[in-house]
Every structure is written in C-alpha cells, then in structure tokens.
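Reviewers asked in the last cycle whether our approach scales beyond single polypeptides. To address this, we selected a multi-component target totalling 228 residues and predicted its structure end to end. The input consisted of the following lines:
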Amino acid sequence: EAGVTQFPSHSVIEKGQTVTLRCDPISGHDNLYWYRRVMGKEIKFLLHFVKESKQDESGMPNNRFLAERTGGTYSTLKVQPAELEDSGVYFCASSELAGYKEDTQYFGPGTRLTVL
Amino acid sequence: RKEVEQDPGPFNVPEGATVAFNCTYSNSASQSFFWYRQDCRKEPKLLMSVYSSGNEDGRFTAQLNRASQYISLLIRDSKLSDSATYLCVVNKSPSNTGKLIFGQGTTLQVKP
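The resulting structure, written as structure tokens, was:
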C-alpha cells in the first residue's frame, strides 16, 4: 500500500513569492495533518483536517498560510507571500478515523522549503 | 518552557551497549505517548507506543511514569542501524487523534 506522499520534495523560492505544497494521504485516511520543523527546533503542529473540514488550525502561524482539502482527499498548503522564517521542512501525516482504537499517524517524506 | 523536553545528546555508544533516553512532558492532560524514530533527512516513523505498564518490543523497552510525567526508552544491544534521532511525542487524545506534540529529539550514534 502506498504511504503518504508529498510534492515537491524541495522548493527554493525568493521572499515574497508564493509556494504551494501538496500532500496525498494514505487512501481511506480521514485524518490529515500538517506539521513543520524549522531549523534547530522541534516538529510543530500546524493543522488537522477530518475529511474536508478543519478540525484544529491552532498551529497555523499567521494568515499567510492557507490549507485546503477539497473533497477530503489530497491537501494543499499555500504560503503567500513567503518570508525567510518560513524556511523548514513541512511534513504531512495521515491516520484513519479509528474511533476508540488507538490510531497511528503516518508521516510523508516532507517538503524542504527554502526562502531566500 | 517546552511542552516536551528531551536531552538532545548526541549519545555516542559502542555497538552492543545499552542506552537509555528520557523525556518529560509538562501537560498532565496528555493521554497518549510515543517514541518516534527519525533518520537523517527522513520522516518520523513510529517506533512504539508507551504505556504505564511498560512495554517491550525486541531490544526496545518503553516506560511511562504519569506521576512524574516522565517517559523513557531503553535500547539493549545497540546496533549500527539504531543510529538515528529518537523523538518523544505526546498527545492529549487517548486514541491519538489530534495534534502530536514533539520533543526536540535525542540523537544516537552507535559506533563499531
């Protein structure tokens, strides 16, 4: 079975430009998460979708970040306009909506974003 | 103060050694606890869940102390392939749905 996939694997852009990251979760997984790791810091939560609905977006740093999950399948995370401090690795994770069973979040390989 | 604190290391140990990592978490409402492993420039992968009763998976043993808000991971008979960063992770949900809170990670280098 295919795992979580992310595109692109690397992106180098200039400050002020726009970048869109894509995540394809494991098929059938209702939960989709975005996380970010900036240099020297721990991985931090950005937001959580359940199907197409935003369940928790408490980690989104500011309104330059826009996440969507139309149709409840893949998700995009747009950064507009990008700033230097947005550089880091953006991970997507997915999990089943397992109810009472312990769930596992499976991570994608990440998109390494560099803003110059 | 960080929600999950870990000693970043690095821990440099010879093959065959036993090594222990610890982490503490600040939020007593945390319900689910995990160790993830992350290889260089790769994604985090679940190593094992952690329970109060303690749990073992081969050479790996994890323990949770809720009273002290402390989580441990013991690796016995270290292999070269164990070299990685070990991430202590907590979740407020008992079913692990919802946001994961990560520690900064502890780096392990196993030397021949």
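Chain A has a mean pLDDT of 93. We regard this as preliminary and will revisit it once experimental data from Aim 1 are available.
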